[in-house]
Amino acid sequence: MSAIQPEAALVGASTNGTQVPHDVEDLVRSDDPEHPANLICELCRDFYSVKLFVEADSFSELGWVTGTGGGISIRHGDHVYLAPSGVQKERIHPSHIFVLPFAQTAVPKPGSKRDFLRIPTRNGLKESACTPLFWNAFTMRDAKACIHTHSQHAVMLTLLHPAKDGQATFRISHQEMIKGIRLGGTGKTLAYHDTLEIPIIENTADEEDLTDGMAEAMRRYPDAPAVLVRRHGVYVWGGSWEQAKTQAECLDYLFEIAVKMRLAGMELVGGDA
Ligand SMILES: [Zn+2]
Question: Which of 50, 74, 125, 145 is the Cys-Cys partner for 36 at CB 3.0 to 4.6 Å?
Fold first, then answer.
């Protein structure tokens, strides 16, 4: 497959038998707030700075995608919508969104030759460096959305779980918020007494080099709804963007309380106070 150049993308394209509108700009242009191109912009703004009411006069910010890190990709039908890489996540506009066909013959690595349905015409925009990691969730779990955050709760949790024999796993049970998590991220929901397990992989210098480690962890932990990356963050997916968002929120809550419990010397599994 060959990449479609931006000039070509403006006049329409047809690849992989995927349905493409005559004007490919229509792939990212819609008044529907739930259109993936609009949703990605809104969700990135929320994940950047949504205000969570804490007390009468204090707020805390999510801070999941600050410093241009983190993001979300949505798969809708046979299209995958991606935010650009290295941009201010709270300022993304639908016209900045990349659109790729799904599926493809190989995991699409940033910069590799492949088909795009739509490339932003603004100079210098590159698709998210997380693209091959999002692809793992789409191909291995049939996910419809994947969220990547640099949440401090996730990072701190990985620091409290050193690897043993080259492997590390976060486990927790007896928490109400576990009931918001789905087996494998897209299956049935967990019960209060179930033990949630999430693998922790080691970070790499370049984000895309996490691809194989994430895939291997997903094979070893078929029931895990996410993969944690040490000193980096977490990848979370779901059968819809709503499920992915719900699980990202529930997991972040569990990461935060797990850190507090560990620092208080409490066990995370078993329900003993
Ligand atoms: Zn990252």
Answer: 74
